[in-house]
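Hi there,

I know you've been waiting on this one. I reran it after we fixed the sequence typo, so this is the corrected version. Both the input and the resulting structure follow.
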Amino acid sequence: MSNTNEKKKEVEVADLLETQGKAGNGVSHILRLRFSLASILHLTDRMADRVISAYDRLVSLDDEETAEIYLGMGTDFAHDGNTEDALTSLTRTLEMQPDNGEAWLLVGLVHLDRQETEAAVEAFEKAKALGNNNFKLHCRLAEAFADLGNHKAAVKELKRAVELDPNSAESFFRLGVALDNLKNYEEAAESFQKAIDLSPREPAYYQGMGFTMGSLERHEQAIACIKRAVELERRRSQ
């Protein structure tokens, strides 16, 4: 059984144990419930041990500690690409800690991976409102705005991102693209140049600069940039 499937089963069974365990009293009731579940679900010894451990944690911890468990599980599910169970676990975290900015950021990332862009923006904005002001948040929120065609908002987020990390060539490149979409070509060219200065062997950065130079009718510079992009791409493929 894969690690992700085991985690999913652990969540389902632990939730059932938590609910049913409160209905009975005493150790004997809990033990019967454990053995019954292990038998019905055909759990391996390792899985049964994990279920029992999860149950014991859930019934003995307070909401804050339990929320952290679900946050950790949601993070693991997201890392494994299991977006459905990631959202389920993160939702449980937010039910107990609605002001958890880290959980809202993760929810936004999961929605973005699922191409649920509007839901991603909503989650990212909640994370920002709660004081989450990190580089990754601004970059991914800008990505979501760009997907929605809101290039002005994307520019705002990317400008904040490059303030937080002035050595991110990719962020300067994305800022250049967003500015070019707004027809702010001079500023776009400045951003592309910063990207090139930071990473002079990336073909896409020269291509972006070439298109902007074309829009500015600086045709010789445009041709030179496109030629450089083609040359770097050819070297990369060799």
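Quick highlight: The first helix runs from residue 3 to 21.

Best,
R. S.
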